Amino acid sequence: DEVLWSGGLGIVRKLEHSGFQAYLVGGCVRDKLIGRSLHDIDIATSAKPEEVMATFARTLPTGLKHGTVTVMEAGRAYEVTTFRRESDYSDSRRPDEVEFVLDIVEDLSRRDFTFNAMAFGSDGMIVDPFGGQDALRAGVVDCVGDPSERFGEDALRMLRAIRFASEFEFALLPDVWEGIIQHRQKLRNVAMERVSAEWDKMMSGSGPEQANHFLFKSGLLAHTKEALPDSVKLAAERYRLNGSTWEWDKWGQATSEEASLGNLLQLPMLSEPDHRWAALLMGAGINEEDGAELFRSLRFSGKRSDRITGIMGINEMLSVYDENSVRTGWVYAVLDYGRAAAEDWCTVNEILDETLADARKWLKEMPVVSVSELNVRGDELARSLDKPPGPWIATLLEELLEEVAFGSIPNDKDSLLSAAKQARGTSNEQG
Ligand code: ATP
Ligand code: MG
């Protein structure tokens, strides 16, 4: 952190020695002030991209159109961007053109929130024309200028407002919240990948409960570019109408039973984002199939989607069993979804306080959870039963798997082969 920060200041000084103005800007200044760890350093300068490239030995032209050059120093990357102004956002997402300017304050004025619109100079002075430090002290998200105008220009900022509020446990000022309500239908202009990245960052951050409260309560989810599954939209609409009010200190209190997002308050207790996703969707009453559809729209990898929806699927499966038969349901669920999903499900449910107290124990007691763990192979079955190989082998292995999993027969070759003979005998008689 210190190394990154002083490396950034080194670049600022070098630009100043070449006769340009330069500052650390944006997220790194904000994070430094609130003592949050820095992940990247942005530098703003009066130097044009070609001048930046001429000043440093190792540079990459990462975003010349927007005035951005990446400077490599001591193995670290710093984004150096020319002071600029943005004009006319006709698509509610990207400025039609960017224009280089010579004034840091003008550059800061295009930025979204007051705490993101501060610059740190090599003299240690903070340029803070919009009251970013006041906002940090007060714990509020405030826009540079009129929120309604700023959200109208770029709809992504609505999600960023919610992300920063939840990450820092800040309140959204009333006019910021009203700006979101007013412009929520413009979320359509934001690519699904961006919506997904913001939502996933919220899920991974320190305030997933607050973030989802705002997302569901604002009505934003009804206006994504690709429609989300009906059950997701329905849950959001119910919460919007009947959930708690927007003030940050009241979230989580649903005013009606059906409007609550069940597991909202427990989300931070789960450390893995995928577990949080599963808990959120289960609490909102979303089923496995709609979960999968949601993650397709959000462009999640198949692997992540399967992991999360696997947890949801196990939950759905268990819900049809009662107390007396739930161990049976659990064994079937483990056989269907596998050991990893079963362990994920246990982790989530331990937090939700709906623990099937013995689920982990039962899982451990299962001698096998997949056909590959059986101590007999398909070719051995074929030879022992003296039948040509065919689809019957897979069916038979599944039957044996169930019997071993339930503890009816031990997992050794002799027992498996004799059980196989018996099973084939019976089914031959029947067939
Ligand atoms: P983090 O990296 O922690 O998500 P950040 O503030 O650094 O937060 P970035 O997306 O890295 O966010 O953007 C860097 C800076 O660029 C911001 O601090 C802000 O000043 C400005 N910025 C980013 N996105 C927007 C936007 N959509 N509208 C206006 N300004 C923006
Ligand atoms: Mg950043």
UniProtKB/TrEMBL annotation:
GO terms for biological process: tRNA processing. It comes from the Bacteria. Its cofactor is Mg(2+). Residues 170-223 form the tRNA nucleotidyltransferase/poly(A) polymerase RNA and SrmB- binding domain. Residues 22-141 form the Poly A polymerase head domain. Pfam families: PolyA_pol (PF01743), PolyA_pol_RNAbd (PF12627), tRNA_NucTran2_2 (PF13735). GO terms for molecular function: metal ion binding; nucleotide binding; nucleotidyltransferase activity; tRNA binding. Keywords: Magnesium, Metal-binding, Nucleotide-binding, Nucleotidyltransferase, RNA-binding, Transferase, tRNA processing. Residues 274-419 form the CCA-adding enzyme C-terminal domain. PANTHER family: CCA TRNA NUCLEOTIDYLTRANSFERASE 1, MITOCHONDRIAL. Belongs to the tRNA nucleotidyltransferase/poly(A) polymerase family. This is tRNA nucleotidyltransferase (CCA-adding enzyme).
